[in-house]
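Fold it.
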Amino acid sequence: MSILDNTKFTLLVCEMFYQRGLSQKQIAQELVISRSQVCRILAAALEKRLVTITLHYPNPDESFYQKKINEKYGIGEVYIYDTGELRGIEEMNYLAEVSKNLFPVIVKDNDKVGVMAGRTLSALAKALSKSRNRGLQFVPLCGGTGSNGSDWYANAVAENFSEKTNGRYYILNAPQYCSNIEGKNMLIKEPSIKEILELGKTCNSVLIGIGNIESDSTTIEASNLLKSDINTLKSLGAIASICSSYLDKDGKIIDCDVADRIVGLSIEELKNTKKIGIAQGKSKIEAIKSVLKGGYLDVIITTLSTAKLLI
């Protein structure tokens, strides 16, 4: 008879592991069996329902909508935080504060981390506590050195993250948006700019905000788009912006002159990178839906109020 068929022995192993808190290695040494046998016994106990595991969620609504978004959009890692009645900037700042402890979980030591422009990303960087040097490098994935300096441009966001993590950051000395394609193509041939864009393609993970196509949005403000450009995007059905790409309501990338003039990496150029999106707010619901439908994210961090509207 196999060791796996002995119920009493199986229950003994389970008691040692689940109730006494011994490690698999300690159990193997005490019972004079191999660690792999301990592992198989524990797995068999779950399969035979000799052991059941119950998770106690502090906030059932958060876990309910995490599962719903996972099921509807097929995204693996969903993190939802209840921000109560807060909305607007207060909600954004609170989301950054409560989700800051996720950062060391979703961004691994020695990662090369790409960052986009965005107020939410800037808020997250500010919310982080100072940490030890984890060997992190932060690479801006789009330009944005306009005449009016801002702490939510990609360069500033990269610098803020590196300061909090004792990491290293790079600077992309270029505007996010050029007035014509010829100027953009000349600009990206400059060695210092080309180097950063190529470095961005090698990132292990990317922190991404999600923008909508409204004149007061961060995306539009950072890129200094003209009103005619905004009208062109809307006429083509643009709903969302992610990295240097514009998407329609179904999550399909829109090919257009406006996108071709952006100095930065498109979402397609980051397909082999872990993409972490953080976004919230009623005004961004359709944009977030578009990004999720397109399957562009591996991780989404949002608020409970936003999650309810997404479902």
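The first strand starts at residue 77 and ends at 81.
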